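F.,

This is the one I mentioned.
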């Protein structure tokens, strides 16, 4: 930000400490100092934030509302400083005050308001929306507890609550003026309106207030500041409880509890739904608040011209979680603004668009009609009517084919299917990588593609280069800037292609690998200070970080570690380059198998790290509490990026892109965005192995998969599986028998080795041997690493957002003077 001096910042920090805490720098805690710095920076952006909204209003701009249950923003401060180009100014100002900027940064809580890829994608999208000047709101829930904090005790995951608001919320601005009432339950009544028509309303309902907190979304090198609006729940009658008579008192207490629970916790299961009533309430809560407010604002600006709504408003549904927006928009248009059904329906469909993020059937949200109709009686009526009309349309289309209609209906088998509602009620359905979108059309949503071919499209995910290189990897960023000659690549990542000719330049290779090594040293020092374990920075850093899920196959990687361990034990003189395997992953609290895999990784680490025959050639580390700020430390230090999901299961992946951008070489399957990464970087610079999605599909369909045959024929597989149960890892022999059984016999009714770990094992082992060979040729490795960075331009979320804006939202960027 031009014109800002060190003095502004110093004065701001001192003043904020004084007024907010009655403290001086000497007496303030680290958290208070962090808050004072954060408030100072927020103050600095307020002017642009206000200007942005004045501009939006004056020019009556079209706006996208990104509706999402999750925003995994990561720490705000460092990103704000980077995007405002204040890195040096702030550092010097704090230096002069005697404040260590790193300490201030580390005192910021990392708000974990998301589970994984879905929430982090939403955060990257917001960064790109502001940076490119698109008018946008992110709309979600202000959970008081984010995803749990993971501790490892005796090798097991233990969950602790994460109260990220403990020390205050310096970035949030409470907006009481936009608080709205949200109604649950009750009975639907019809009342005759002034227009002579009957309209529906509710009586005997419970309600809570939705109160928005606004957070600035600061773009890079721009004056545009968009808004992340997170809704918090509060009781409606908070203040006059005392005056209530008996019956109302009980109701008021219920409503108090409802409010307390509503925005309390994020459901910590990724790619999986548990169908809990509270979650449906959360969904309706933030959707209803958002839709009500957006339509009020539209009415203020445009009166009753709701037929123009889609020209000014687009709702993007981040997965099925916000798909109640379809029904809520219908409700408000019908019951509040008294539009006719057909008119309201055309408006709704033109305004909503849906992104599908996953092919896992356990992630498809379905709500029991009993819960849905009891909690949201008016919304349920509307959903039934949408369903009735949709089924009538299907009968026209297919003739009377009851089986087909039952399969495609929105309400069937006692359930409401949210994906079907999102597809029918919007104008766009997109997948998140080419292969994923293709599978949606060919298999998963084939019937819908037949009826609505024009709605289907693909938008390959992306990541923001601001957080994921400029901020987290300053060394490499500087090298890129001096090599290219300017910083434009930070907002036009395709410029990285200019590095390609440098991939074979010996001097550039040396510079590039020096930075990689320095990042590895930094990470090792961090591990040493935090966990008391250093790692060898000259070893290969082989990293797999993501949610723990069977389809992501952490098991394949740890099996390979066991195999290497067995190999070295049998041939102690074998020549392998030392390797450090780093895992980090949270498992859903109720996901027993995933938690057992965490225990296995820790048990393997115990044995391997302490075995003198291994002599440091393998080191295994499970780093607790994977989160955005930890990722920012791991990604720049990786040599090898593990992206090894069963083909056809990982919709896109976005961690894969972060590692590629930072010069790690990927070992991966032809799944998700890996397929497009291969197109960009070429097969010489990536280690691709294993079955294709078609092969996986065919093998599953055939029913011929026989892991016992693999066990009998492959000595290495046999050895790895035996290690699970022969006492090496666990003196009682029983702890990991479940995994052994799951691989060979199937466990708890599941098919044996459902995710084809053993089927892909030999190919993976071969690919890992190729990694070892490639790394031994340091110049070859440097070339590969540079080519990865240089070829990653496509995976900027700026590119993704431009495609959404051009093709789905028809949204134009603004410029603010
Ligand atoms: C998923 C997929 C992952 C995607 C990510 C963002 C599920 N959101 N929900 N996501 O597991 O592959 O990259 O689209």
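My design for it:
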């Amino acid at each position: 930000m031009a014109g800002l001096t060190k003095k502004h910042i110093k004065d701001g920090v001192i003043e904020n400490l004084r007024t907010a805490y009655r403290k001086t720098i000497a007496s303030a805690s680290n958290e208070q100092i962090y808050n004072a710095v954060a408030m100072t920076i927020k103050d600095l952006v307020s002017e642009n934030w206000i200007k942005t909204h004045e501009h939006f209003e004056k020019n009556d701009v079209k706006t996208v509302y990104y509706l999402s249950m999750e925003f995994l923003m990561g720490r705000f401060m460092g990103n704000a400083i980077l995007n405002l180009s204040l890195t040096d100014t702030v550092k010097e100002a704090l230096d002069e005050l005697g404040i260590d900027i790193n300490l201030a940064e580390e005192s910021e809580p990392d708000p974990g308001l998301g589970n994984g890829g879905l929430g982090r994608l939403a955060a990257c999208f917001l960064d790109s929306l502001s940076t490119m000047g698109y008018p946008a709101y992110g709309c979600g829930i202000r959970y008081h507890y984010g995803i749990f904090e993971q501790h490892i005790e005796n090798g097991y995951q233990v969950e602790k609550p994460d109260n990220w608001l403990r020390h205050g919320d310096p970035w949030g601005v409470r907006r009481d003026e936009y608080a709205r009432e949200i109604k649950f339950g009750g009975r639907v009544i019809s009342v005759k309106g002034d227009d002579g028509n009957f309209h529906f309303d509710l009586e005997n309902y419970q309600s809570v207030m939705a109160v928005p907190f606004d957070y600035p979304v600061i773009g890079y090198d721009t004056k545009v500041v968009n808004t992340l609006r997170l809704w918090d729940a509060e009781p409606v009658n908070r203040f006059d409880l005392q005056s209530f008579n008996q019956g109302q008192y009980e109701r008021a207490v219920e409503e108090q509890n409802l409010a307390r629970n509503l925005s309390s916790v994020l459901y910590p299961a990724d790619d999986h739904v548990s169908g809990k009533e509270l979650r449906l309430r959360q969904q309706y809560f933030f959707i209803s608040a958002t839709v009500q407010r957006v339509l009020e604002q539209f009415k203020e600006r445009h009166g009753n011209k709701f037929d123009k709504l889609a020209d000014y408003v687009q709702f993007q549904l981040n997965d099925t979680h916000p798909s109640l927006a379809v029904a809520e928009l219908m409700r408000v248009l019908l019951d509040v603004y008294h539009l006719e059904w057909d008119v309201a329906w055309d408006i709704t469909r033109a305004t909503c668009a849906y992104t599908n993020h996953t092919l896992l059937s356990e992630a498809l949200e379905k709500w029991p009609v009993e819960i849905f109709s009891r909690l949201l009686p008016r919304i349920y009526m509307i959903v039934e009517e949408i369903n009735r009309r949709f089924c009538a349309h299907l009968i026209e289309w297919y003739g009377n084919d009851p089986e087909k209609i039952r399969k495609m209906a929105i309400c069937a088998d006692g359930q409401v299917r949210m994906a079907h509602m999102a597809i029918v009620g919007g104008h766009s359905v997109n997948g998140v990588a080419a292969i994923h979108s293709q599978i949606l059309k060919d298999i998963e949503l084939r019937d819908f593609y037949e009826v609505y071919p024009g709605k289907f499209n693909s938008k390959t995910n992306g990541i923001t280069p601001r957080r994921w290189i400029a901020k987290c990897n300053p060394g490499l960023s500087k090298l890129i800037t001096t090599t290219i000659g300017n910083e434009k690549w930070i907002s036009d990542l395709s410029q990285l292609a200019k590095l390609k000719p440098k991939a074979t330049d010996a001097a550039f290779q040396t510079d590039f690998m020096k930075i990689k090594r320095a990042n590895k040293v930094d990470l090792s020092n961090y591990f040493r200070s935090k966990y008391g374990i250093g790692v060898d920075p000259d070893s290969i850093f082989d990293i797999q970080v993501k949610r723990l899920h069977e389809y992501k196959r952490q098991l394949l990687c740890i099996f390979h570690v066991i195999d290497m361990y067995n190999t070295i034990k049998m041939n102690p003189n074998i020549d392998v380059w030392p390797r450090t395997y780093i895992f980090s992953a949270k498992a859903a609290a109720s996901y027993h198998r995933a938690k057992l895999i965490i225990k296995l990784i820790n048990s393997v680490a115990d044995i391997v790290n302490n075995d003198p025959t291994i002599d440091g050639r393998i080191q295994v580390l499970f780093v607790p509490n994977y989160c955005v700020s930890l990722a920012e430390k791991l990604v720049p230090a990786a040599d090898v990026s593990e992206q090894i999901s069963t083909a056809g299961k990982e919709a896109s992946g976005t961690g894969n892109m972060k590692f590629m951008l930072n010069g790690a070489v990927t070992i991966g399957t032809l799944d998700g965005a890996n397929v497009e990464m291969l197109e960009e970087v070429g097969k010489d610079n990536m280690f691709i192995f294993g079955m294709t999605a078609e092969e996986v599909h065919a093998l599953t369909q055939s029913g011929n998969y026989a892991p016992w045959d693999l066990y009998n024929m492959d000595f290495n597989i046999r050895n790895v599986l035996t290690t699970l149960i022969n006492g090496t890892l666990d003196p009682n022999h029983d702890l990991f028998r479940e995994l052994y059984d799951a691989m060979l016999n199937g466990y708890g009714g599941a098919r044996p080795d459902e995710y084809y770990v053993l089927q892909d094992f030999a190919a993976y082992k071969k690919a890992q041997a190729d990694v070892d060979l490639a790394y031994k040729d340091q110049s070859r490795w440097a070339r590969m690493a540079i080519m990865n960075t240089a070829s990653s331009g496509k995976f900027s979320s700026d590119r993704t957002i431009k495609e959404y804006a051009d093709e789905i939202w028809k949204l134009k960027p603004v410029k603010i003077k």
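The chain is about 50% helix and 15% strand.

Talk soon.
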